[in-house]
């Protein structure tokens, strides 16, 4: 028998079962309503109500059958397929929505429902940005927007708290290397601007394990830790991002790919040959051990990056890869200029150009 005949036979059986269910339910409704609410005892309205309830139940059964057998009818998540929205718990949280963000502001906090999620892969984030002209003489490290790293920085010996301080990560103080060196050694993901104001979303994937340091012992010399191999995977630069105009960047991360959206328009999608696992280099090089914490957190730049002309608002985090419809409908809507708390523009009087 051909596959087409098998499919038609299956559909015919399903429809036959639905017709039988409707017939039985209708018969049951009629007999039940007649027994409990006959016209002889004056309860005609009760009889009508029985009919309405039973027919509604039959219609619901048919809708469930169609939803799971032919085409979606019920929409269980925002932006999902279907016609009728079913109320569901919102699994996203909005951060950085109270004006000017603090240095090293870490999210999620330990008391949040997302605190137990690792944010290694299969997650999404959306952030509103307002960028003013950055002086050409400014350090490249002033162009960092946000980054993702370990829950308590790179040192497991530092007790973590729910405050914005997160210990000795190597990125909390003014770095001596290039921005790329800094991010590659201490983070697993970052958003930053180039010197020409192109926006980059970059992931740092460990493709080779680090070698822990060996402490000197009798008859054995000390051996320094050897960092693992870290490969950066970046999106194509988003050229000419708007200055003095709020815009939204959305990043959707799956097992082996990530997508970047500018104001809900897809700008880049990249496949990664391996799962987007987190970088464990920094702990090996700084403490001689191996990083075992798997929880990741998102941070604003530290005080070492003060006076930057980059402002953030409405960081939305999801513990899953969201659909394009959800990218379009993400709430709250794009922040206004006033909501960023940017204050006066120093370049207006200094005459600097970005």
Characterize this entry briefly.
This protein is an alpha+beta fold. It has six helices and 14 strands. It folds into two domains: 3-71; 93-343, Jelly Rolls.
Widest sheet, order of strands: 3-14-5-10-11-12
| CATH architecture label name of the largest domain | Sandwich
| Contiguous runs where pLDDT drops below 50 for at least 5 residues | 153-170, 280-292
Tally of alpha and pi helices: 6
Choose one word for the global shape.
extended
Helix and strand pattern: HHEEEEEEHEEEEEEHEEHH
Helix content, binned percent: 10-25%
Mean pLDDT: 74
Using the CA coordinates, give the radius of gyration: 29 Å
**Intertermini distance:** 70 Å
Q: Total number of β-strand segments?
A: 14
The biggest beta sheet reads:
6 strands, antiparallel
Strand content: 15-25%
Question: Can you put this structure into words, describing what you see?
Answer:
The protein is of the alpha+beta class and 354 residues long. It folds into two domains: 3-71; 93-343, Jelly Rolls. 24% of the residues lie in helices and 23% in strands. It contains six helices and 14 strands. It has helices spanning 3-36, 44-69, 179-186, 281-287, 324-329, 347-350; strands at residues 74-75, 84-85, 93-95, 106-107, 123-131, 144-154, 189-193, 199-206, 230-234, 247-253, 257-262, 265-271, 296-299, 310-318. It has a six-stranded antiparallel sheet with strand order 3-14-5-10-11-12, with no helix packed on it. Helix 1 (3-36) packs antiparallel against helix 2. The radius of gyration is 29 Å and the shape is extended. Mean pLDDT is 74; it is low at 153-170 and 280-292.
């Amino acid at each position: 028998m051909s596959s087409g005949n098998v499919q038609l036979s299956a559909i015919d059986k399903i429809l036959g079962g639905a017709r039988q269910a409707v017939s039985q339910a209708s018969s049951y409704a009629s007999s039940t309503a007649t027994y409990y609410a006959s016209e002889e005892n004056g309860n005609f309205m009760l009889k009508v109500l029985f009919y309405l309830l039973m027919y509604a139940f039959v219609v619901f059964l048919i809708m469930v059958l169609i939803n799971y057998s032919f085409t979606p009818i019920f929409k269980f998540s925002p932006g999902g397929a279907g016609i009728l929205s079913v109320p569901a718990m919102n699994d996203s949280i909005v951060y950085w929505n109270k004006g000017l963000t603090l240095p090293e502001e870490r999210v999620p906090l330990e008391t949040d429902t997302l605190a137990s999620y690792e944010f290694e892969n299969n997650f999404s984030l959306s952030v509103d940005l307002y960028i003013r002209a950055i002086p050409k003489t400014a350090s490249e490290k002033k162009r960092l927007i946000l980054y993702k790293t370990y829950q308590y920085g790179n040192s497991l010996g530092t007790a973590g708290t729910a405050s914005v301080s997160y210990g000795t990560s190597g990125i909390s103080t003014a770095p001596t290397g290039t921005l790329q060196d800094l991010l590659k050694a201490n983070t697993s993901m970052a958003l930053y601007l180039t010197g020409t104001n192109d926006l980059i979303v970059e992931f740092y994937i460990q493709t080779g394990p680090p070698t822990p340091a060996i402490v000197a012992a009798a008859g054995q010399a000390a051996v320094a830790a050897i960092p693992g191999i870290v490969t950066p995977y970046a999106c194509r630069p988003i050229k000419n991002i708007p200055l003095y105009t709020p815009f939204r960047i959305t990043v959707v991360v799956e097992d082996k790919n990530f997508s970047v959206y500018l104001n809900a328009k897809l700008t880049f999608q990249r496949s990664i040959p391996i799962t987007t696992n987190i970088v464990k280099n920094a702990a090996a090089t700084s403490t001689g051990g191996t990083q075992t914490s798997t929880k990741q957190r998102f941070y604003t730049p530290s005080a070492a990056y003060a006076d930057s002309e980059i402002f953030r608002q409405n960081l939305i985090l999801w513990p899953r890869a969201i659909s394009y419809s959800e990218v379009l409908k993400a709430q709250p809507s794009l922040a206004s200029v006033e909501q960023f708390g940017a204050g006066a523009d120093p370049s207006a009087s200094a005459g600097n150009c970005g």
